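Incident log, structure service

09:12 report received: a user says their structure output differs between two submissions of the same chain.
09:20 pulled the input from the user's history:
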Amino acid sequence: MNKQFSDTILKSTGANSFRKIEEIQNLWSEYGSIVRYGLNGGLAQTIIVKHVKLPNAGTHPRGWNTSFSHQRKVKSYRVETEWYRTWSNQCDNYCRIPKCYATDIYDNEVLIILEDLDCAGYPVRLNTANWNEIELCLSWLAAFHAKFIYKQPVNLWSVGTYWHLETRPEELEELSDKNLKQAASKIDNILNETPYKTIVHGDAKLANFCFSADKNNVAAVDFQYVGGGCGMKDVAYFIGSCLNESDCEKYESSVLDFYFAELNRSFKQNNICINGNELENNWRALYHVAWTDFHRFLKGWSPGHWKINTYSEKVTRQVLANII
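09:34 re-ran on a clean worker, output below:
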């Protein structure tokens, strides 16, 4: 770590020194790492440091090693830095995220210094979730979407989510489903034309939620693809990350009923004047469209992916029948 970054860690945390405890994970395509550091003195015992080292070209595990994909990832880290620098303090305990101590940039490196959610009471990560845990995450998403309703995504992605069509031309080119390929732009336009835009997390999978030990509270991480859009993108993607295909269909109504009840509760809690019924009618109609939008990306990016299932295909056929 260069001296500028070391000084930033010490200054922002008030520590006398720091030491590496463990490397939590490498970033996608070897663009850096996420590391836990111990502090001597200062504001906390430990911190999480996301240290991005941008190469000239990426090494993508699925072969998408192009200048275009590299630039997308570069922008994603700039967006995440901006999110933590200027947006993150608007989140509250209902949409809990790690506190940001500081961000820094040096040449082609980025540093984001974050609160350690393990030490803050969110040490649990889940590979599967029961209904109560799913509700917790849906409540988080509802609170997040309510908090940022109508906010313009200044210096974030103009359209959030990592699979947004404009950022994925290579995957679209590889898509063999001709009807879905033909309708891709129309699907994207339908989602973007909602009059009820908010800020979406953009990668709201189960793995990006951190739970308390009793699993009664939850926080979220990873804001590389945060930006404007319809909240249904986050909800559809989240549900696809934690339910199998039969449960996606079986619990679809329950998922949406709970989410919209929480969304309207969050509007009232934040004294946001909005016609919740009209928003709900608009967004409910976009749930399957959002699901189809992600399905379009997935079929072009990784045709053999486990998330390409009978439910996703059924939803896509229904959407295409209505718009083609």
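09:41 both user submissions now match this output. Likely a transient worker issue. Closing.
09:42 reviewer note: Residues 60-64 have pLDDT under 50 and may be disordered. The first strand starts at residue 17 and ends at 26.
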